[in-house]
Design goal:
The chain contains 3 helices and 6 strands, in the order αββββαββα. By secondary structure, the protein is an alpha+beta fold. It has one domain: Pemi-like Protein 1, Chain: D (Ribbon). Strands 1-2 form a two-stranded antiparallel sheet. It has a two-stranded antiparallel sheet with strand order 3-4. It is elongated and about 60 Å long.
Length: 106
């Protein structure tokens, strides 16, 4: 049997370099097979610094041959937003916005 090539040896090794540098963080990763797709692994410290938790939704954008990942903030219902304020929105009162100024129809 032939000796494995360097490609065969390193195909299952993931190299991760995480270098925090003030406002810029550089991380070098390798793309690896994952089922019928490909994936990358991101370090816990990088995800923590980016305020990304497991199962968060990310948006992927391709811009000038660069892959950009951005956290997507989920839509919250009115009830979920009201919970932030103790469940009280105080929408029962009428608000006087003043006299019409332009072409408003009252």
């Amino acid at each position: 049997m032939d000796a494995p090539s360097l490609l065969d040896i390193h195909i299952h090794t993931v190299y991760t370099v995480y270098i925090p540098n003030h406002e810029v963080i550089l991380m070098q990763v390798q793309i690896k097979p994952w089922g019928n797709s490909h994936g990358i692994r991101l370090s816990k410290s990088l995800l923590r610094d980016a305020n990304i938790q497991p199962n968060d939704t990310l948006q992927i954008r391709l811009e000038d041959s660069k892959i950009i990942l951005s956290k997507v903030f989920p839509h919250r219902s009115l009830k979920e937003r009201a919970a932030t304020y103790g469940g009280q929105l105080n929408l029962s009162e009428e608000i006087d916005w003043g006299e019409p100024v332009g072409n408003e129809v009252w």
